[in-house]
Design goal:
The complex is a heterodimer of chains A (302) and B (232). Chain A contains 13 helices and 10 strands. Chain A has 302 residues and is of the alpha/beta class. Chain A has 3 domains: 28 residues; 141 residues, Periplasmic binding protein-like II (D-Maltodextrin-Binding Protein, domain 2, 3-Layer(aba) Sandwich); 110 residues, D-Maltodextrin-Binding Protein, domain 2, CATH 3.40.190.10. Chain A is globular. With 232 residues, chain B is mainly alpha-helical. Chain B has a single domain, classed as MetI-like fold (Orthogonal Bundle). Chain B contains 11 helices and no strands. The chains are: A alpha/beta (302), B mainly alpha (232). Chains A and B meet through α2, β2 and α9 of A and α2, α5, α7 and α10 of B.
């Protein structure tokens, strides 16, 4: 096929001159580029499932175990695109993803309410912790709740690094400040990083400041950081992960079969067992707690 | 410093031990950036030559636009290509987003202005009397063009080297249109960024070493080709 194009190109060059030859070359070039390494994509049954998830989910390493396990049992291929929570949800809203795995319940519910996402089910949870410098200048270790911890940090005007990126972590952090009846932004000690959790932790470590993080990312990065957990266990700090399929009624181009296959598998016994055991051999404790079959109501703060 | 040194050693170890994951990522890097550079050359050298020899009203504007294109922020190119390739976007039916082909398109868009601009510059700085000479010797249009390109092959190869260098080092657009997906669209640059964000600095430095080695070998070969012409 390309040989034919090449000959046609040479022929046209001689006859019609440089201008038209350039045009044909351009067309050939674009075609070569678009088709390099693949068969005509629109002719095949769609085996690819695009999952929009978050960077912290990716960084935990859990997906590197779950996805191959699923692909071994299924015809579908999961393409996991890890972005900030805001972008992941936006991909769902625009119908650009087939399935979402995120952890921002208050932002997820509107998608179910307006029919963008269906079959929202809880998969697992982990928790957030507040970490800070070992010296703990704000005496956070002496506070009894997450809200009190933030109040102590604000009172002492100690450096606090925020994700600042509308991620699940950031939304959790903002809700805590709201509950504490404080508005930290605008103060010099409150710095918004605009980066993923790992990078934000690195900044907090460098600046000897505090930050809110999910336990999993903290454990994974602990050896490179000089931060300790200063506040944990408050029920409000639970980080709930739900999987939702993007509605194919609203977006016909969605791979509904693939999305359902993946979601169903995630809630099944094999995936739940993988989730429950993940991290134990490396960190001595699991990074996640399997929640298949439960609803978020059981974790609502009393 | 210890960290860097250890990372470099790990990098060479990864190369020589033919670590399969590193091989796969490196292979994809070469495939994507190589194809993109090839496209840029196929499109860019004819266009740049034409721009270099032609004289018409509005040529100045076109030249400026090409020069601006040379400095086009890659991440902007990536954003533009993403928007075009979104499922619900104009070219969504091609289902190219999150595939290596999308990365080739984005990288091609980044490399092309570089090749066009530098080719134009090389052709334009040819002594104008060359065209007179060739015409007086009875050269046809095609023969004239071929001889001119031969004369400025040093500049042309600089264009190719610049184009290649621009895309082998590209990370923003590749991550955006490719998604940096394990086993599908991860290349060396996006892998390095991922490992840094995960805190695996040693591995990031090792991968950087692999990337630098790859870039060095490719560019050395091209430079050799370029300098061959100067040994008269």
């Amino acid at each position: 096929m390309y040989l034919g194009w090449g000959c046609g190109l040479l022929a046209s060059w001689r006859k019609t001159g440089l201008g038209k030859a350039i045009g044909t070359t351009l067309l050939l070039a674009v075609l070569v580029g678009a088709l390099s390494g693949c068969e005509l994509p629109w002719a095949k049954v769609n085996k690819e499932v695009i999952m929009a998830t978050t960077t912290s989910t990716r960084d935990s390493g859990l997906l590197d175990v779950l996805i191959p396990a699923f692909e071994a049992k299924s015809d579908f291929i999961i393409k996991s695109v890890a972005v900030g929570t805001g972008q992941a949800l936006e991909m769902g809203i625009k119908g650009e993803a087939d399935v979402l795995l995120v952890h921002a319940p208050s932002s997820e519910r509107p998608l179910v309410e307006d029919g963008t996402a269906i079959s929202r089910r809880m998969v697992m949870h982990n928790d957030f912790v507040i970490v800070g410098p070992p010296a703990d200048p704000a005496a956070v270790k002496e506070t009894a709740s997450a809200v009190e911890a933030l109040q102590a940090i604000a009172a002492g005007e100690d450096v606090f690094i925020s994700r600042g990126d509308e991620s699940g972590t950031h939304k959790m952090e903002k809700s805590l400040w709201t509950t504490a009846e404080l508005t930290p932004s605008g103060n010099k000690w409150y710095q918004e990083a605009g980066l993923g959790m790992g990078d934000t932790l690195a900044i907090a470590s460098e600046k000897e400041g505090y930050t809110l993080t999910d336990r999993a990312t903290y454990l994974a990065r602990k050896s490179t950081l000089e931060l300790e957990i200063v506040s944990e266990g408050d029920p409000v700090l639970l980080n709930l992960y739900h999987v939702m399929e993007v509605s194919s009624k609203k977006f016909p181009k969605v791979n509904a079969k693939g999305a359902k296959a993946w979601s169903d598998w995630l809630l099944g016994a094999e995936a739940q067992a993988i989730i429950a055991a993940f991290g134990v051999d490396k960190y001595g404790e699991p990074l996640f707690f399997a929640d298949g079959g439960k609803t978020e109501a059981i974790y609502a703060p009393k | 410093m210890e960290l860097i040194w250890q990372g470099v050693i790990e990098g060479f170890r990864l190369i020589f031990s033919l670590d399969p994951e590193v091989l796969r990522v490196t292979g994809l890097t070469l495939q994507v950036s190589g194809t993109a550079t090839l496209i840029a050359v196929i499109v860019g050298i004819p266009l740049g030559t034409w721009l270099g020899v032609s004289r018409f009203r509005g040529r100045g504007t076109l030249v400026t636009m090409v020069n601006v294109g040379m400095g086009l922020p890659p991440v902007v190119a990536g954003l533009l290509v993403s928007i075009l390739l979104w499922r619900n976007g104009p070219l969504g039916v091609l289902r190219l987003l999150y595939t290596p082909s999308a990365m080739v398109i984005a990288q091609g868009l980044i490399a092309s202005p570089l090749v066009i601009g530098l080719t134009r510059s090389a052709v334009e700085s040819l002594d104008p009397s060359i065209r007179e000479q060739l015409r007086s010797l009875g050269a046809s249009r095609g023969q004239m063009l071929w001889a001119m390109l031969n004369e400025c092959r040093i500049g042309l190869l600089a264009a190719v080297i610049a184009g290649f260098g621009g895309v082998i080092s590209e990370v923003g657009a590749s991550a955006m249109v490719g998604g940096n997906i394990t086993g599908h669209t991860r290349v060396l640059t996006t892998a390095i960024m991922l490992e840094v964000s995960k805190g695996n600095f040693g591995l990031a430095i090792a991968l950087s070493t692999v990337l630098l080695t790859l870039a060095y070998v490719a560019t050395a070969l091209l430079t050799n080709l370029q300098q061959k012409g100067t040994r008269r």
